[in-house]
Each structure stands twice: as structure tokens, then as C-alpha cells.
Amino acid sequence: MGSTAVSDTASTTSAASTDRKAMRERAADYLLRRHRLVWPELLPWAAAILVYFLFPDRMTFGGQVLIMVLFALSLDLILGYAGIVTLGHAAFFGIGAYTVGLLIARFGWSEPISSIVLAGLIAAAFGLLFGVFLLRYRGLTLLMLTLAIAIMVQETGNLRSDISGGYDGLPGLVISPLFGTFEYDLYGRVNYLYVLGVLAIVFYCVRRVVHSPFGQALTGIRENVRRMHAIGSPVHRRLVTVYAIAAGIAGIAGGLFTQTNAYVTLAVFDFDMSAKVMVMLILGGTGRLYGAFLGATIYMVLEDYFSKMSPTFWQLGIGLLLVLTVLFAPRGFLGLFEKVAGYFRKERR
Amino acid sequence: MMDIALQVQGLNRNFGALRVTRDVDLTLERGARRALIGPNGAGKTTLVNLITGALKPSSGKVLLNGADITATSQADRARRGLARTFQINQLFRGLSVLENVGMAISERDGYANNLWRAVGSKRVILDEAIDYLDSLRLTDDALKLVRELPYGRQRLVEIAIALAQKPRVLLLDEPAAGVPSSESHLILDVVASLDPDIAVLIIEHDMDVVFRFAKQITVLVQGAVFTEGTPAEIQANEQVRAVYLGQRHAGGGHG
Fold first, then answer.
1. What is the pTM of this model?
2. Domains in chain B, please, with CATH?
3. Which of B79, B95, B108 is the closest to A223 by Cβ?
4. A299 φ, ψ (degrees, to nearest 5)
5. In 10 A of CB A158, how many CB atoms?
6. What ranges do the domains of chain A cover?
7. Total Cβ atoms within 10 A of residue B251
8. What is the pLDDT of residues A112-151, one digit of tens each?
């Protein structure tokens, strides 16, 4: 009697413990799964490489699209993950763009890679500086303050047009060959691959950050900031950190913009730029990284197409698309794709 | 002498001309089980907010383990071992139960400063999170999103997060509020079986719970401490019955 009772308990506890072990494995898998690369993620990269071979004469435009993808990616990091709203993100894009421009025009420094690294670092430093002040605020106040700061940066450039070149900008910038060997060709093919390479590296880093414990904390701040304070999270520090990172990435995008166009004007700071990048992200879908890819591409291609169709009224088409997206696909085009994919997966089962 | 975990001295808070907290003194020894009761609008939640730092006092002091924390931030107090639950759930609704608890652990241990490693790659955090869920019988819900859970289960997640902070002092703001009585016993069992080392202050309206759980009771009326004592003393106190217990038994209060 006694022994059977003991063995009974032993078998139930061992069953329970294997059960619990299995549960732990499932939990670990649940968390790590999101971090693992899945094959649809290769699609945008494959498409980008395909474009290189299919449209060899549109490479300058292609490079510009990839730059906007990078810019939108940096916005996704703060808007989509941390929930920071901003209408002044062009400030950092512009700071990066001018870093590269001024390095060439005023210091004769034209080596491309070190230039964009510097562009990123300087923009990140400004992001840190502005972020410490800005991120004490939220919502509408924050929106207005970011807008104001972008205008102030632009006007500072205007004030010192002796340095910045004002609204005429810094034209005719000559960039040194990439790695000292690859000359920038007229069709921008080298530049396209260069921008794609930079995008891939930055994208990899951003992907790691959003899946890290730090990235999880950002999601926590977006989801419920009161709870984050209550569990002891240094919320302000986390927000300033991600803001500086995003500013740095925007700066890199800006630097690439100057290198691609071989000129830069104060228009890079325009409100139009800040608004445009937000529209791109909303079109593509926020908080999912690839939304930046999709949104920027859709926007840029449509802008190109519509503006050829009707140089005066092309924005009507973009506006209409934005209205439809916000109303019928609130999670953007990527959200729409996911929904359709999920539907098909269910059908198959 | 017992260790004093939390001490509130002469705490005041005014909202304009309205004095919502008046000269409150309150002491929690290590392992204390104190209930804070009082009619609606007595300023119970305000007091919790003042202790945790969600609100700044107009005057007075808060001491945690002997250190003056009056000027410190909410997050700093949390890191020093002060945890709370909210009267109305404050959870990460779009995240899984596991992540809700894991978040508290990774913030507690400073792991959340890491920008490079994948969430879930550190097994100790995962294992500890599941231990807390096990102890609250939430394991089966670990991978569900919080917003998919019934409200009563969500209340348990509130407690799981607070426990994951490894607090020295725990403030429970009506842990069973909004939960049907058929499920509330689960929550109250959890509260009753908390680590005896943690000092607990519980705000609760259900007198049965208060008398079962608390070793000391503080009665708050119009922002001030009306009286305090053991459950037996409070039950026997005619004035308390008049301002509070009697009212409630008479069916309703001022609301």
C-alpha cells in the first residue's frame, strides 16, 4: 500500500516536471521565434537585387528609394516601437546631409564611408541633445516641439548661409571612389549597391535592437508607461537612447542623400520631408521594420509615376492613397498583406 | 525592535485648496500585514501614489528601509524594493503574460539595458518568470496575450509583475476589485500566502478580507488617519462603525 502510494506520487511528479520542462521549452521558443529569420524577410532584399538587374538605367532613383527606406526605418524605431511622435525628423536627416556636404565643400573630406559614419555620429549627438529636452513631453506638445526644433535648425542654416550655402545649397560635390577603387558612375549603379549595403547593415542592427530586452522595454513604454515607471524602468533614459539611435540612422540616410545627389540644400530640413517620411511609414505599416521598406517604395514609385502623369496635381493621388490606407488598412500595406497571408494559411489547414 | 520597512511621516498633499492627504503617519514593519480602509474619497489611492512617487507630497517624508526617498523618482523607488499593484489594471495588454512578468525581471536586473541579445536568450529570466506564473497558477496562460484573458486572471498578472520585482514593500490597491466573487478567492489566497518577509499594505473594501488578512488596520477618513489598531480593536471601535462600517452595512456610503 505504502509503496504504491509513493511510486504514484513519484510518477505524477515526474510527469508534472516533464510537463513543466516542455512548457519552459515552448516559452523559450515563443520568445526566440520572433527573433529568428523567416524566409519572407528575404523578399525585399531579393527584390532590391532584382531591381539592380532589371532597371540598370533607373539606379539613381533606386538609390533614392533605398535612402527613404532607411529614413523611414529610423522613424519606425521611435514611432512604431517607442511610440514617440515627431514632425521634425528631417532635422536629423538634414544634419547628416550637411555633415557630408560640409565635409567635402569646406574641409575637402570626400571619402564616402567615413563621411556617413561621421554624419550618423553627429546626428546622434544632436538627437541626444534634443532628446534630453524633448522627451520630457508627450503627445501634441512633443509634436509641436519637434516641429519647432526642425525649423530652428533650418533657420540656423539660413542665418549662416556663408557656411551652409543657404537655399542655393552646396552644389557640385565630388565624392571619392568607394573603398578608393569604385568610381561613382553616371547611372548610379555603384551608388545603388553602396546604399543597399549600408541599408542592410543598419537594418540588421535595428532588427537586433527591437528584439533585444531594450527593444522590449520600448514596447513596454508604448504599451503602458505607468507600469514601466512602477517596475523601475528609467523611461526617460530609454527614450533618449532610442531617439539618439534613430537620429543617427536618419543622419546616415541624410549623408547618403547628399552623396547620391552630389548636392545639398536647406530643403532637406523642410517640413515636407518630416511629413513625407511619416506618410511613408503609415502607408507601409508602423512597428514592423518592413513597413518602412514597403511604404517608402510605394510612396516613391507613385510620386515618380504621378508626377510624370500630372506635374501639378500629383499629390492628389498620394493623398487619396493615404486616406484609403488609414481608413481601410490601419496597419498599413504590410498589415494588409499579413491579413491576407493569415487568411490563406487558415484556408489551407 | 522590528525592522521598519516603510515609514511615512507627516505627509500632506493639496490639490489647490483641497487637502486630500493630511498629516498622515504610517509605519510598516518588515513582514507587516496592514490594511488601509476608509470610505470612498478618503484618499487611499492618493496615499499609495504619494508613497510610490507617482505624486509628489506638498510636505512630509517617505522613508524606505530607513532611507529618505521623498525626492526620488518612482522608478528609483521601485528599484529600491517598493512595488505596487493598481486599482485599475496597468498591464502591457498587447504582450503575452510571460513578457509582462519577464519585463519586470529584466528591468529589475538591469538586463533591459542590453540592446543586442535576443529576448528569451537568457534562460534564468525565463525560468524565474515561469516560476512566478507557476506560483499564481498562471502557467497555462503564459503565452496568451494579456488582453485575451478574463479580468480576474489579469488581476493575477498585476500581482505576478509586482512579485517579480522582488519587493521588500508591496502596496496592493484593491487586488480583487472588479473580479466576480466566484474568482476573487483565488486572488485572496495568493495575497494570504505572500512571502512573510514582505511588508504588505492592502487597500480593500471587503471587510471579510480585511479581517482575515490584516494584523493591523489603518482607517483613513477625509485624508487623515482616523485611527489604527488590530482588527479586533477596529471592529469594536464605535466611531469607526459610525463613519465607515455602519455606513456600509446600512447599504452604501457617500459614494
1. 0.91
2. 4-92+168-249 (3.40.50.300)
3. B95
4. -60, -50
5. 13
6. 57-297
7. 6
8. 999 999 999 999 999 999 999 999 999 999 999 999 999 9
